[in-house]
Amino acid sequence: MTETVLVTGGTGFVAGWAIVRLLQQGYRVRTTLRELSKERSVRAAIATQVDADERLRFVVADLMQDDGWEAAMAGIDYVLHVASPLSGEQTSADRYALVPPARDGTLRVLKAAVAGGVRRVVMTSAAATTRQRLDRDIVSDETMWADPDDPQFDAYRVSKILAERAAWDFMKAHGGKTEFTTVLPGAVFGPILTPGNLGSVAIIDGLAKGRPALMPMLGFWVVDVRDLVDLHIAAMVSPEAAGERFLGVGEFLWMADIARILRERMSNDDAPKRELPTFIVRLMAPFLGPLRTLAPLVGRRFGVSNQKARHMLGFRPRPATDTIVDCATSLKMPYQPGSVVR
Prior knowledge:
disordered C terminus
């Protein structure tokens, strides 16, 4: 019998590629939308990569509402919980303001999955949930938890830390036979399926258009969305992955490295060339709105290990240069299957 996977948040960047990859591997897929009016656009995006036919179904369920989740979980074998109730720039002065929606949405999915007898839930968290204090020269791994009171973390990352902690606490106490695993990605780039809701890809889009003209010295542990989805699926089916966390990160790139790739590999003369001195960024950050949340990270390269995902699940992230090129290409024109050779 063909197994069925529920992917939360079908309009999202990661969710779209998860749906594609699951269908390519022969699964039936059900995905949640806040409103069915989005079904046509999601189907069109998925159709550029794979023939979904009757194997793709849609249900209405909102992370912030109880309605719909019981029906969404009926007959489901696995859940990839990749959706988040939060998006865009978070500028709240209260670093804990976003915790309730992130935590409650996650627990709503987990409670429904356990009640529905789902075999395993794989939740997308964030690599930042393992990051240690910036004054410590230490490589983060899955045994570590970030301190939400650490001032390096903005409201969004605080919410990710505490939502994942709440998820583990709930599953240890109430999970029953439902297994649980988390995947912790870095900065997710790669080809887009639709032009809306760019998320982290907006960084590439901005650099390709020459913004910012003076780049802050910010760095990212890059992961390709396609490799991240493969990691989720491996975490879903591998017996040894139950009860484990997996960091999904590839290479580290500074913002200036990304701009250089755009200039050299994409012949993009608009990509910026100059960096803003770190001390100026730190001085100006309190007056620059969303940028102030990034001030602690300017000029810092914090270590992260992906060895657990490599050894246990065969994670093999592609070169970050290929990810950046594929991402920038898709921003210029619709991504087509087979257009990129891994």
